[in-house]
Amino acid sequence: MFSTTKEPYDCKFTNELKFKLNGDPITIKDPDPELLLVHWLRESGYTGTKFSCGQGGCGACTVIIYSDDKFENGEGVQPTFRAINSCLRPLVAMHNMEVLTVEGIGSMKDLKLDPVQEALAKFNGSQCGYCTPGFVCGMKAYLLNTEASKESRNIVDIEDAFDGHLCRCTGYRPILCALKTFSSDGNKEELEHTPPLVIDPSCTYSKHSLQHSHVHVERFEGTDAPVSVDTSYPMLKVISKPGTNRSFTWIKVNTLEQLMALIQDIPKEDRQKIHFVVGNTAYGIQPFQDKIKKQTICLYIADIPDLGQMSQDGSSMIAGAAVSLQSLFQYCRLQVENNKKMKMTKKKADDDLQSSFPLEVLYNHMKRLATTEVRNAGSLAGNLYLAKMWRFPSDLACVLMTLDAAVIMQSTGHPLRPSYSIPEFISDKVALDGTNVIHSIVIPRTASQNVFTRTYKVAARPQNSHPLLNGGFSAQINRRSFEDVRIVFGNLGQKTQRMPQTEKWMKTNCTPQMLSEQYLSLLSELEKELKEVICTPPGMENLPERQLKRFEEFRMSLARNMFLKYMIELCAVFKLPSWNSMSKLKSAPESLIYARMDTSSSGCQDFCVYPNEAPVSEPIVKQSIFLQTTGEAKYTQDAEMGSQNLYHGVYILNMEEAYAKFTLDIPPDFKEKFPDVVKIFTADDVNPSVKANPTNKEIKLRHTHLLTERDMTAFHSPSNRNDLGRGQEGFPGDTLFAKEKVIYIGQPIGMVVSKSESSAREAAQWLQQNAVKFKKLSPTYLTLEEALERSNFFYDKTNHPSAPSRLKKVSHPTELESIDWSMYENDCSTYTVVEGVQSTDSQYHFYMETQSALAYPQEGGKIKVISSAQSPASVQATVGQVCDLPMNSVVIEIPRIGGGYGGKEVQSKYASAAAAFCAHKLNKPVRVALHRTEDMHMIGKRHAVFGKYRVAATKDGKIIAMELNFFADGGCTYDCSFPVMDLILLVSDNAYKIPKFLAQGEVCMTNKATSTAFRSFGVVQGMLIVEAAVEAIAEKLNIHSNQLREINFYKKGDYTPYGQQLLYCNLDGVWETILESSNYHEREKAVKKFNLENKFKKRAIKLIPLKYGISFTRKMSNQGGALLQVYQDDGRVLLNFGGVEMGQGLNTKMMQIAAFTLNIPLEYIEVSNTATDKVPNPVSTGASTGSDLNGGAVKNACVKLKKRLEDCIDEYLSAVDPSISFVDPTTHEFLLQWYKTRKWYFPDGKNYWPCVAHLAYSQRVSLSSTGFFKSADLVAVSNESPLGRPFYYFNYAAAVSEVEVDTLTGECTILRSDIVYDAGHSLNPAIDIGQIEGGFVMGVGYVLTEKLIYDKNGKLFTDGTWEYKPPDTKTVPLDMRVTIYPGANHKEHARPIHRISHASNSSESVKIDPHGIQSSKATGEPPLVLANSVFFAVKDAIKEARLEAELSTPFELDSPATVRDILLACRSDISISHL
Question: Is the C-alpha dihedral spanning 53, 54, 55, 58 positive or negative?
């Protein structure tokens, strides 16, 4: 690759990588130059650093690097701690650096916590915990930096520091609340509304224990001195090891002279392969990864002093090419603050000379540029390089072009450094051919007099989101003309570019005094030019034509509106004659999102505790939370990391055709290409011609009985072991590996098993691209719309005997088959009828830990699988099937999972079964862990649902009749789509008693990954459609929707359409409580006033109720088991049950129940991993039943053991005189106490529980107990028996959400959300409020930001964090208030009160539903549905915008309501034409 002639520079190479890790020196000889830091850390045992998205988009992999900051800031060099994404950072880039991981910050093993870790725990700021180490490292870096720079800490900066972190569980509120306590004011204002939690389980709530008694809190102060880069060090040079398929070279360059000499030494034909690396952040951009892999000569230039400095030169500042984006951002911030101070000292008369401060424009735009971690690593030049070479939608290119910045180049052999404008640099005029590099960027620090500059960005999400469109505008305003006009757009045309024709027209034809009159003509010129340059953004070329046309319409509208924002503000600033409606336009230029960026969110929580039930009802933090904050909590993906004694499996996926025949032809030289590959498994390996087990059929029948309710319709008694689930007649079903046909893009074709994960993945990708050949089949159904048009529905038992059964309808009266609408339509004087449609889209689970499993062969051919799964029995059955093993030879163990949300109920069996099969065949442990993109393509998602409704109501708002028709996208196989549709139909009445009611549904088959279980299991889709119907009839009647809802509410004692009586209906109480606590009526008046005063900003407030039934709808699944074991030496208790801990605090709640029932200290109880050899046949942890089913089983086991121990003591006492002094004084003392009190534990006194355990053991009494629980009184609803009692109980809740929408951009902010939630007697308010907040925010993602887009071939386009956008810290409500009904009267938080009476026989005295464990109610799924309040608030805000545009007709708005959908629905183009 390189010339072998004498080196033209005075420096040597080294092949030894040296750095420090948590203070310890590390030396690695000949490291793999392509190995990422995250993988090395995890393989080296530092598993606290998580690998989740692989694109720098989630923050789970965050670590801290420690070095000198090299830029000149007037104060000299200062140490800098940078939080970076280790999933983007090559290991070899750590040379001469120091790395700090979560393990180096604090450890439970050492009984030493950092204050950051303690704060997160104190506020219960962790649920599944997979994201938690990333938050710890991010906060620690912020604290260390502010301490080093002596900066004050404010809550906004702290919140902004986590712009690159995702949490799928908590809803962010407890995390941010905890971390903002490190602000200068200690977050005092929010803490006034935040009740304290119980940290030490030995204390009760009344003691307000806020310290962990067993842990020393000690700050990590950093190392003594930062690592400085010594340019005299030998350059690190590493080359790929022989035998790999890529020739890859990495060189860490120390000086600019060395760099130029190195480039000159590389042969000309290889210079196009050069990749200049600073932060390697481009690796996280999904469309660019293949391009990066083609550049095999990496020159690391981040530590070259000449390229890493910033300086000032007169009216400009010069930033070196390798200056990090964060350094530039901080520099601009400092300059902006200094500029503001200087302005304050000037005379008021100077204010008439208006000019924009260029660095303030740059600073404001950079607030939304990437993330803190990406800015810490990425460079200024790298960003511009991507904009030039790969059409990257660069924020920087747009703002720098607007500011008239310049790029200075450095070429080999040329001492002069030519300067180019940004347009020249991005154009073809400057060729980056490997002989030149960007040296620096010159940015103006000052502007000429009366120059006004503004830039704009609109993205899919407030933070960590590339622009859908960038706009920049600048002009110098003279008395009679405009000069130096710059109109710039990014992500509109081929590259970021100016609009020269419009600029010329504005300078030639516009005058400041006549601008408002000339604006429409100017806009017409701009539109002409926009149409000439607009084109499809890179990577989107293959999207359906309708999607591209809609996106083009959106960007055209957005470009016009950005220009209008600029013009309105320009007129206001320079006091130019403007439009007549200027008073209503004042707020138009303001960016909702930038305003949100400058504001911190807050929260408020209300709940009650019941002291007589402690520790039940106590707000105790999760008992594993300290291990999660230190990174010591282990997950399936952490197991055996770095072990040399296992193989790795990676799927070969179909990534080309939605429906096709295929062949996999492995070339003869494959083994030579990939020597580490052990075996390639396909469907042919799963089904040998001779069956090894003659009783296979019997085993399969037994497997069927083990499947959970949500698996039942998916299961198909297979003709071979490769079949894992039922498919439509004539089509393949779910398979371990596809056989002959593929039916969706992302389907597994086979699995490569290799000695390392990297070699397995490289081989699998090579096979996908080179060895799989397809022959298209037809017809294909790529969308729900296509399936509906051709009635492509899944068969059920009514139209195909072998198909599974499902509910066809839910109706009242039950015999109702159809509604005669003519009687209502013909009587217009009495009735009003409305009909319409509502679409809800799909959603990806985005669990932080992807699907994964580790399988261990055991003696005698048995197998053990560590799985990240919600349904151990389902996994066990599937593994037994594919391995041809009986159930007692298969053990499934689940430690904890990093999020599930339904995605690991049915779908987790695939990774687990594949790992088990490969391990069984190879007799070697095999690990399978999907990468994020693989997971997104392969695994099913939430059902998209299309709904039709028709409603008839009287003139006073009483709904007389309602008909609902639901059509769900089931994907390519049955999976659990029928149970989902069953539940949609059963809950479709929501909170409303309707005399004539009919709900029907069909499940459509499409060529997508099979739709599967997802938190709320179809309810959020069904409820959104129902509420759309209620909103429509209210609008048609011109009745306030609240009033209409109240008129039609269920009352206590009413019956549902399927005949279940609502004995404990709290709907009215919840509704009245939220109206009062949210100050609804006053806020509604304020919203109306705001809308009258603002033309292009609109607000709305919406209140939505909820009735949610809790149970698996199939009766057999409503059962749970538990195993309780007491150890006689110390009385410690080991608890095991069938439920899976996935962040919902199940283990902690079970410990609370056991401690209360046994009357022992909570700290005496430990929970062991869920395992099928401890508790057999565990049902899936889902449907919000985990606490009820497992809690009931735990309680029953405890009651059984307690009775046994009481009998033992009584029997012992009956044989012995308790007054006699025994050999053991403690036993004697206990027996005397027992004789008087019949208690063995006194919370404020003695604990005799160990004595009881020892006594029972000495009397040969079993200290082990099993428990079983089944939900009572359930009666299934079916087509044959339409009346029943399918739900154990109902949750009642309501949410009020207030939003503000920018009708010129489509951006939306949730100003406030209030939730009142009936959780019964909460087992643990801290955990339940966390579930309510987290579920609600996940729902916000569903209705606002999480849009799944497929290309015209059926391939998922939004297959990573680059395009798919779950909520971030700025998506959540600015103000979020949660009350667990009945609350604490909003006066005293968490006020201890006496327990409300249980239900009695008298219906008059019924207050609390007794069915849930300890009269508690579920909180897992229902809160998600409450996010519908946000959707309908947004729709109302759009309605206000349309009324402004004189559009009064009803309109459709699909969910999610993304910025694109909102903008296009607002029709701001009409409002603009009316200016």
Answer: positive
Beta strands (DSSP E) in 868-925 are 890-894
Six-digit token string for 765: 């990708």
Dist. CA 656–CA 742, nearest whole Å: 10
pLDDT band at 1067, cuts 50/70/90? very high
Characterise 1259 by phi-psi region: left (phi > 0), alpha (psi -120 to 50), beta (else): alpha
Joined tokens for residue 794? 């899944």
CA distance 1309 to 692: 61
> How many separate helices (H) and strands (E) can be counted in the chain?
44, 48
Helix (H) / strand (E) element for 1103: namely strand 1097-1110
What is the identity of the amino acid at 22? N
Tens-place pLDDT, residues 526-565: 999 999 999 999 889 999 999 999 999 999 999 999 999 9
> Quick count: other Cβ atoms within 10 Å of Cβ 1386?
14
How is residue 354 written in tokens?
């208006």
Let me know: does 1264 contact 1123? Beta carbons within 8 Å: yes
Residue 702 has pLDDT above 60, yes or no: no
Determine the 3-state secondary structure of 1118 from DSSP: coil
Nearest in space to 303 (alpha carbons), one of 377, 364, 372: 377
Spatial distance between the Cα atoms of 808 and 796, rounded to a whole number of angstroms: 9
Q: Per-residue pLDDT for 168 more than 60?
A: yes
CA–CA dist 237, 252 (Å, integer):
7
Q: Map 659-692 to HEC letters.
A: CEEEEECCCCCHHHHCCCEEEEEEHHHHCCCCCC
Q: What mean pLDDT comes out for the span 1091-1106?
A: 97
Mean pLDDT of the residues in the chain: 90
Are 121 and 137 contacting, i.e. CB atoms less than 8 angstroms apart?
no
Peptide bond into 813 cis (omega under 30): yes
Residue 1244 predicted with pLDDT over 90: no
Token pair belonging to 811? 């109706």
Which residue in 45, 178, 179 sits closest to 103, CA to CA? Answer: 45
Q: How does 559-568 read in b/e, with b if 16+ C-beta sit within 10 Å? A: bbbbbbbbbb
- CB count within 10 Å of CB 882 equals 25
Q: What is the distance between the alpha carbons of residues 876 and 861, in angstroms, rounded to a whole number?
A: 15
Rounded CA gap, 316 and 1254, in Å?
Answer: 81
The residue-averaged pLDDT of 294-304 equals 91
Residues in CB range of 722: below 8 A, 6 or more apart: 683, 686, 687, 735, 736, 737, 739, 882
**Angle CA 13–18–20, to nearest 5:** 160
- Distance, CA of 300 to CA of 285 (rounded, Å): 19
Order the strands of the 1308-1318 sheet from edge to edge: 602-606, 1375-1381, 1308-1318, 1289-1302, 1097-1110
Q: Mean pLDDT, to the nearest integer, of 1074-1091?
A: 97
As a whole-number percent, the residues of the chain with pLDDT over 70 amount to 90
Beta bridge pairs of residue 893: 866, 1171
b/e code 75-102 from CB counts within 10 Å (16+ = b): eeeebbbbbbbbbbbbbbbbbbbbbbbb
Q: How far apart are the first and last CA of the chain?
A: 65
Edge-first strand listing for the sheet containing 62-69: 24-29, 16-21, 98-100, 62-69, 78-85
Burial of 352 (0-12, 13-18, 19+ CB in 10 A): exposed
Sign of the Cα pseudo-torsion (709, 712, 714, 715, in order): positive
| pLDDT computed for residue 211 by the predictor | 38
Q: Does residue 772 sit in helix, strand or coil?
A: strand
DSSP character at residue 1349:
-
Cβ–Cβ under 8 Å, residues 81 and 141: yes
Helix, coil or strand: residue 895: coil
What predicted TM-score, i.e. pTM, was given to this entire model?
A: 0.95
